[in-house]
Amino acid sequence: MTDQTDHSRRNFLYVAAGGLGAVAGGATAVPFLGSMLPAADTLAAATTEFDVSTVAEGQLVVVQWQGKPVFVTHRTPELLAQLDGHDDELKDPNSEAIEAVQAEWMDTPEKRKNRSIKPEYLIVVASCTHLGCIPLYKPSKGRAEWGDSVPSNWVGGWHCPCHGSYYDLAARVIKGSPAPHNLHVMPYKFINDTTVVIG
Ligand code: FES
Question: Which residue's CA is minimally distant from atom 4 of ligand 1?
Fold first, then answer.
């Protein structure tokens, strides 16, 4: 948990996202531990509405959906380019495992690679598919920013320090990780250009 705070403070904004209609434009940043203790009404909410335009380029926000943390990441063209060239290092580069797909719209090779409806916004459940820890966001390539916590050929993405799983910037799990699957994509849809309804 300390590692999460130290390495990721500038890239993370934790947002207490309520139920349908309660979030867009009015999200409140809260400490991480607070975000893990959702109110009963949040737990009961079947859907979460969120304005993705509030996520700055390259940054990540955590919202809550049915009491679970969800990553909403705003990928720049540069970050999207980091998805190419390492398919052979991934367990499931084309999102073929049913545990990782969970989305009818993931019906083209491009969407199976990006794992998103709008390429710039990746929206996934923020729980490592090994034992459920929340992975750390480490978007830049290489070790300059992250030291030896990442492999020397780091492509950018997420690192789960609990048992050493790695995911790329489409949350596709990297071979050698104990996590079996890509981070899960939950049902979601856009109801206008910038408002997403999760669930
Ligand atoms: S919970 Fe992520 S590697 Fe074990």
Answer: 163
Question: What is the CATH number for 14?
Answer: 2.102.10.10
pLDDT in tens, 53-94: 999 999 999 999 999 999 999 999 999 999 999 999 999 999
Q: Which residues line ligand 1 (CB under 6 A)?
A: 128, 130-133, 160, 162-165, 178-179
Give residue 43 CA to ligand 1 midpoint distance, Å. Answer: 24
Q: How far apart are CA 84 and CA 75, in angstroms?
A: 14
CA neighbor of 183 nearest in space, from 160, 149, 164, 156 = 160
Question: How far, in Å, CA of 92 to CA of 180, rounded?
Answer: 9
Instruction: Report the C-alpha gap between 14 and 139 in whole angstroms.
Output: 17
pTM of the model: 0.81
From 129, 116, 110, select the one nearest 179 (Cα to Cα): 129
> Which pLDDT tens digit goes with each residue over 158-192?
999 999 999 999 999 999 999 999 999 999 999 99
**79 to 30, 66, 71, 147, 190: CA distances (angstroms):** 27, 29, 16, 19, 22
Which of 130, 163, 181, 184 is labelled catalytic?
A: 163
Q: How many domains does the chain fold into?
A: 1
Q: Which domain holds residue 162?
A: 2-198
